[in-house]
Amino acid sequence: MERIKLHKDFRLNGVAYSSIKNILSPKQDMPIEVYEFLEDWFSREYFINVNTSGSTGKPKTIKLQKQHMINSALATGKYFNLAANTSALLCLPVTYIAGKMMLVRALVLGWHIDVRQPNSTPLSTTEKQYDFAAMIPLQIENSLSKIHLIKKVIVGGGVVSKKLHTKLQGIKSLVFATYGMTETITHIAVKQLNKISYTPNFYNILPNVIVFKDDRGCLVIKANKVSNDAIFTNDVVRLISDTEFEWLGRFDNVINSGGVKLHPEKIEAKLVTVIKQRFFVAGIADEKLGERLILLVELKEEVNTVALKNEIDRSVKRLQLLSKFEIPKEIYFLKEFTETETGKIQRRETLKKIKNSINKG
After folding, report:
1. Is the whole model's pTM more than 0.90, yes or no?
2. Nearest residue to 67 via CA among 218, 211, 227
């Protein structure tokens, strides 16, 4: 394919580049992963190799067409009204799609983008104001005192908890939860989380996207601008209209306990009000029920687990948070969850850590 053009307004860490040859000069001062991506982006290949995170399955490498990535960047710019000279902060790993697409948006739309080393506190050393940034929930949580420096923030890579959602109501920035994946080249749907008069339960799909459900009740996405084929997801949803849907949870996480289908993500959204530590619920084999529901809690520090278990049990009963089917049969404590490079919990791998002790018990 023809080499992609460099937008005249593009700036990287405050530096303007007169040509592609100039930006690819080995003398340029930029992180190596950014330089390597720019080499790929300006090559004559029509695709980019992108790694999936592995949070919902084995990590894999897929090919994404550059034109589809350009289309995605244009759609984001239009939806959020982010034209040339937008100031943006990149604080996500460039090794994955979310970080790559921040660079693509800047390159295609002519943004002024600053690259920061990805960590859990991306605003700790800055007082600069930005128009736009993309973060994961943990980064938002750790940046609440400074998040006002960014006018618009999109959040992906994990579910925004009720606790965090409540904290977002008092900030000046506009914050949006996004729905998407590597195969859809980041978000194809968005829901605003603050500065609105109602609690948003539903994602609104972006233009040129069609959604429907398969026979499992999972979302199917047709977005010709970013994918040649329909994308069959493992996300169980409730369709509200042609342009809205409610995310219920992962099909591969659904627990069938005594004939009752339980969505872990919905149970976790209720438990987040009483459990401070990182946790999740899962199903393990049970002779009578088929699967029984358990709760796993991460404890990185020494804690009286008996007292904590009793406290959780009392809070759940007192607040009447769960139905009788949603109450975990057991609670297990682990020193550390298994996670991906981007900080997402790998549920299956974490569960393996305690299965031997569960089976012996």
Report:
1. no
2. 227
